[in-house]
Structure formats: C-alpha cells, structure tokens
Amino acid sequence: MSFFRFAKPSALYVVLVGDVGSGKSTLVEKISGFGGQSSAASTSVTVVSNLFESPDGTVVVCDTPGSNAMDDQFEHNLNIAHALNFMPVHSILFVIKADTRMDNVISGIRKYAEGFIPEDIPMELLGVCITHMDTVSWTPSDVVPYIKNKLGIETAIFSSINQSGDSICKAIRAEVGKRAPIKITVDGELFLRLFRIDNNNIKILREVRKEVARFELMKDEFYRIKAAFSTSEQMDMHFEFQTWMFEEIIEAQKRLSGQNNFTFYGPQMACEASHVANMTNQLRKVLSDVRIEAMQYHRDVDTNFRKCQYCPVVWQKIEGCDGQTVCGKRVSNLYDSWSESGTISTFRFVWNPLKSKLQITKLGTRNSRKERTAGSGSQYGGGCGRTIEWKNMAPVTAPVEFNIDPSSTKDVRPVAFDGVMDAFSKKFKQALDGLGDLKINSRNKNKKAGGAK
Ligand SMILES: Nc1nc2c(ncn2[C@@H]2O[C@H](COP(=O)(O)OP(=O)(O)OP(=O)(O)O)[C@@H](O)[C@H]2O)c(=O)[nH]1
Ligand SMILES: [Mg+2]
C-alpha cells in the first residue's frame, strides 16, 4: 500500500537519468522499499517518471524512463523534463552500469557531462551513480579521482546488488546534502537544449558533423587572418566576427533543414527540431570560444559603476581621467578607449565553401565620435548636464544587464527561423500539461498524506 504525500521541506530531491537497464528502478526500489519497479527486459521498462520517498523522508528520488530508448524518445524525455520541473533539484544523477573496463564507464560519464552546456544547466547539479559494482573488480577509489578532478563532477555514488537502501541514502546525503536545491524550469527551448530526440539518421548526423567542422574551420581561419591586422583593427574585427558567426548559425540551421526537407510539422516535428538543436548546441560551443576571446578586450575597462551626485543616472567610466566632466557626456561604445583616431573599422566576412577559406575584407572605417552625439535624444544623452567628478560619485552595483556573462550563447535559439521554436514550444507545453501532476509514493503512514505539491 502506498500514500501520496508532500515532500518534507528538508528532503533531498534526486532525479535519476540514464540508459535503459542501467539500474535506475533498482536504486529506487532499494531507497524506497517499493518493489516491482525494475526488470531485466531489454527495452525500457519504466515509461513515465515516478517519485518515491525513502522511509525516513530524507530523500525523494525520481525514477525516469531510459533516455536512450529507440522508441518514444520524445515521451521519455518529456517525462524527465516533467520530473525536473516538479520541485527544486539537489542532483540529477546519471546512472551508469559498471563495466569490466573502467575506461568505458569514464567515457560514458564524459559523454553525459559534455552533452550539457553549463549555462543551460548548473553543472553542480550533475552527478553520477555507478551501479553493478558487484560485477567488476575495480573499486570506487579507482574511479573517483577521474570523475571529480578530471571531469569536474562533484557527486559520485556507487551501488551493488546487495547494497541496502539505507546506505545509498546515506551516500546521497553525504554527497548532496549540504547543497541548496536549484529550481529548474524546462520549457520548449531548454528541452531542445538538454535532450536529444533524433532518430540516428546517419545522413543527417553526417551533415551535422560537416557543419560543425566547417564552423571550427571558420574560427581557426579567423584567428590566422586576424593576426595580420593592427591591435585596434583586431578588436573591431573580433566583435564583428562573433556577430557574423551568430548569423551563420542560423544559416546552418536553414541549410540542414532544407537539405533534409524538414517541415517541422506533424509527428516528425520534435525529431527534426532536435536534429537542428543538436547541431546548434555544438555550434554554440564554437561561438562561445570566440566570445570568450572577445571578452579579453574588455579586461582593461574600469567596470565600476557610479551614480551621478545630482540625478539617478548611473555611469560607467570607460575612458578619460578622474577629473571633472558633465553628467550625460557619454562615449557610445567601448572601442573608443583603444581607437586612437576615434574610428571603428568595419569588415566583411565571406566563407568560400569550395576552398574552405574565410575571406575578410576591410570595408572602411566609421567615425565613432560622430555617432556618439547623433541620436542621443537630449543634449546630454540622458544625463542632467551638471558637472560631476568620478571621485565624488557613489559606487553602485552594476545594473542587471551588465552582469550577463558576455560569453553566453543563450541568445542562439535551438531553431531560430520561421517561428519553428514558438510552434514547438506550444506543442511541448501542451504535452507537458497533459502529463498531469506528479505524486510522491510513500510508505510512511504516520505522516499526513496529501497531494504532491
Ligand atoms: N548485478 C547487478 N544487477 C543489477 C544492479 N542494478 C540493477 N541490476 C539489474 O539490472 C537490470 C535492469 O535494472 P533496472 O533497475 O530495471 O534498470 P532501469 O535503469 O530502471 O531500466 P529502464 O527502466 O528500462 O530504463 C535488472 O535485472 C536488475 O536486477 C546491480 O547493482 N548489480
Ligand atoms: Mg526503470
């Protein structure tokens, strides 16, 4: 007999994910004392997410369907998303079966960790649980240094067939008990970033690889060509190049969709969108490298923000001295501090697919000082016009928009054209709502029964 109940506010919430047959349901049986969840079947046995509480209420664990199933991948991953959204998560434990060769386990974990982009999911949430430890001769201490130091995964738990649920709970408490849970909201966009639901179509996957290789090459070519330009030109070039790369991702998305006649309609929609999203994730990693490099140009800029003594306007000192100026006298962009002549170079980037060469042409220069006054609205561009002095201005915390990681690639949508993303998000939300509320299965009769949320 089971009861549905609220989770204790102090309960640790752990979501188990992993391949078919890796031992997720067996772990859940041990932790909760509920039987009948696991199976030796070759196809995924668990098809929806199920929540269970440990007898002492300290751990709530979620059993999810195998994420690599051949069929129903969308439904399986939808159920995992449902579990992640349920309540703030302490850990997403990747359950992996121990293999005689330790290397195979490590590469399995590496693939899992590399599948995520840190800005999509907080990395501290990712953990691993290696099951079937009774079938191998190596021990946890052989593998923990790799997991924690090399792969940067902080949480590692081990289990074997005869291990008690109590000792697994104890390990979970020890590994994630000190951490605050993190609220995750998987919407259509995050779903496509986190999960793959492609159909292993070799032709499509080959084209994806080609696009990624081309992107890598563009980046390498850029760094090679850039070296021949002056420092200030290099900086202007770098910022323009990352904008061009951003646009090229959308072009690559269109190419992949066109070559494979994707319609983003009907039952194939999720799979097609996932192919594009998978490619996009890989291209984002390349773009992120370029943006991280671009950040270097900001490093000498004084990023302190200070408030005008007379009006609510906040200023960032980008150039000039500590002496007097006028509130509202602004530089319109950061380039000025490097550009001695007050000009910004502009470039054109063209990729030659036949020669696999990038061509960069300098188009000319714009006068940045002219732009500075144009279009500023009022005479003092938003300031009060009174005389201010940096040393007299109160420091303030940077406005939210300045705290955004400049290397972030979240602005790249998984499918960025023709309203596909919005259509997918709508479908995703409908499907998620259709799953209804999740409930926590509990054996503990002494505690008040209730709904899940
Ligand atoms: N020897 C051994 N067998 C295990 C261990 N954990 C699980 N198994 C067996 O592996 C098989 C699959 O386990 P499940 O727990 O059903 O796997 P699952 O991850 O829930 O699989 P799906 O629901 O299909 O995704 C069962 O026959 C379990 O008895 C373990 O630590 N050692
Ligand atoms: Mg299962």
Any key phrases for this structure?
single chain; 453 residues; alpha/beta; Rossmann fold; 3 domains; eight-stranded mixed sheet; three-stranded antiparallel sheet; globular; binds guanosine-5'-triphosphate; binds magnesium ion
User: Spans of 5+ residues with little confidence (pLDDT < 50)?
Assistant: 332-341, 368-380, 448-453
Provide the CATH architecture of the largest domain: 3-Layer(aba) Sandwich
Estimated radius of gyration: 27 Å
Named CATH topology of the largest domain: Rossmann fold
Secondary structure: number of strands: 15
The largest sheet is: 8 strands, mixed
Tally of alpha and pi helices: 11
Ligand set: guanosine-5'-triphosphate, magnesium ion
Q: Class by helix and strand content? A: alpha/beta
> Could you give the order of strands across the largest sheet?
1-15-3-4-2-5-6-7
Count of separate structural domains: 3
Span from first to last CA?
21 Å
The CATH superfamily label of the largest domain reads P-loop containing nucleotide triphosphate hydrolases
Q: Which bin fits the share of residues in helices?
A: 25-40%
Quaternary = single chain
The rough form would be described as globular
Mean pLDDT: 83
